Amino acid sequence: MSVLNLDRPRPPARPALRVPAWAARAALAAALLAAWQLAVASGAAASAGVPAPLECLRRLPEVLGGARFWSDAARSLLTTAEAFAAAALAGLAGGAVLARFPLVAKILEPYLVGAYAVPVVVFYPTFLVVFGLGTVPIVLTAFLMAVVPVLLTTMVALGELRPAHRKLARSLCCTRGQAARLILLPSALPLLLPGLKLGFVYAMAATVGAEFIVADAGLGFRIGELYRNFEAVDMYVHIIVMIAFAVGCNSLFNLVERIVRRDLT
Amino acid sequence: MSAPGAGDVVMDAVTMTYHSQGRPTVAIQNASGTIGRGRFVSILGPSGCGKSTLLDIVAGLTAPTSGQVRIGGERVTAPRRDFAMVFQDDSTLHWRTVLDNVALGLEVAGVPKAERRARAYDMLGLVGLRGFENHRPRQLSGGMRQRVAIARALVMEPAMLLMDEPFGALDQQTRTLVGIELLRIWEETRTSVLFVTHDIREAVTLSDEVWVMSRRPSTILDVVRIDLPRPRDAEVLRGPEFETYVNGLWDVIQAEVASAMREQERAAS
After folding, report:
1. Each residue of A52-85: pLDDT tens digit?
2. Mutate: best of B57, B61, B87, partner A, most A CBs <10 A
3. pLDDT in tens, B62-111
4. Would you call A168 and B83 a contact, using CB atoms and an 8 Å cutoff?
5. Who's near A169: CB < 8 A, 6+ residues apart?
6. In this complex, do B85 and A174 lie within 8 Å of one another by their Cβ atoms?
7. Percent of chain A at pLDDT above 70?
8. What is the dihedral of CA B121, B208, B161, B144, to 10 degrees?
9. Which UniProt keywords apply (chain B) (predicted)?
10. Could you say which of 3.30.420.40, 1.10.3720.10, 3.40.630.40, 3.10.450.50 is the CATH number of the domain covering A61-264?
11. For chain A, which residues make up each domain, given as ranges?
């Protein structure tokens, strides 16, 4: 039977699954972990040098109990946060300026869109030469990665404000602050927030990536070091915690989004 | 015409010239008229004739190239708190509840929360949206959203209500019904209204006076007083007099619409 069978009436939709979605998701995660465990136990994953999840789980408390892990995590998060904060400020301000001056935006647009495609990490060695080993070259790399999506989405968000909303603000004799706070910013938020979220994801990816290449501390650096020392279990423990951090940060952003965007409630 | 009264809005030789590609284009030329206090005046004209621009000038949103707009002798040079607008496009704020949408102007004006909510609530009763105060605009139909916009304007108790094709985005049936609703609301408030439309029947149904605008360079071609009795119930709106007004206006505007259309076709080709 063809997928696009237009002749036959659709069968009535099946009654909704009785299992709540979160339970199904948890079951899926458990099944994947079980498959991983089985793959390692059966020797199928031996050539990949992957440790079993249970082994990682046993090692987890020891890694989390160590001071080194937390100093690495703090370093990575701080670097990410610095790069993201700078990117958010510069991106929002730059996007607002470009939305205000469409001619300038039109001239710069191909460069900005092009910048989106550039893997900024290739400039990391240059930054290392100029600024030396430390957080500065990493912050700079992560900033450059993160600023582009924030700037572009800000520009689009402010450019797509409805003319009726602008007119409304003026006709109500809003001050600039009132217009921004009551009408224009909330109207732009549905596009602004995803831009910021994307910026954070880019900042974190660039930070860990740069640390992985050359650094003196940080989760990315540690994962690279453990890899080179054949400490597979510890490496995977770091990777798992890293993933947990990233997912946690993303959830935090979603939570903020839900609080700020009152139209979603 | 008698001397302008205190609440009258006077347009005095309003002219608007644009410069596009180095060439001046006269959009509005010497448009003059008086909207008497408590009168419902419609500006009727072909698309693109500058009706909305004229409305923006009266609102103080756009400065005319020459001429002026006055209310009670005072020149309008900027948006005013005692003028309220309703736009063609949906301008409700989708993140606010219906009640908070209606209270928006009062919030901007610094009215305390309890008072503005009470006034907005009363106004929702007037526009027939009681019971929807905690809905979001997205949960409402287009006609209901325009009623929210009308309530948001009227809650300011404006001296002048400026409406820019407020029902232009609605389908014909909804448009007619919301129009009748507006009549009922207006008859309770008796605010001065300047109403832009290209719909002849809508203009006759609602107005005390219809100003017919010519094509570009636009000016007020004719002022037609609509002496139909109020309230304008079904009997009035189906009567022969109503049709006489509609046909009379169509005769005036027909040539303008036809040549405006030819102009647009020329511009497109």
Report:
1. 888 888 999 999 998 999 999 999 999 999 999 9
2. B87
3. 999 999 999 988 899 999 999 999 998 899 999 999 999 999 999 999 99
4. no
5. A178, A179, A182, A183, A184
6. no
7. 92
8. 50
9. ATP-binding, Nucleotide-binding, Transport
10. 1.10.3720.10
11. 61-264
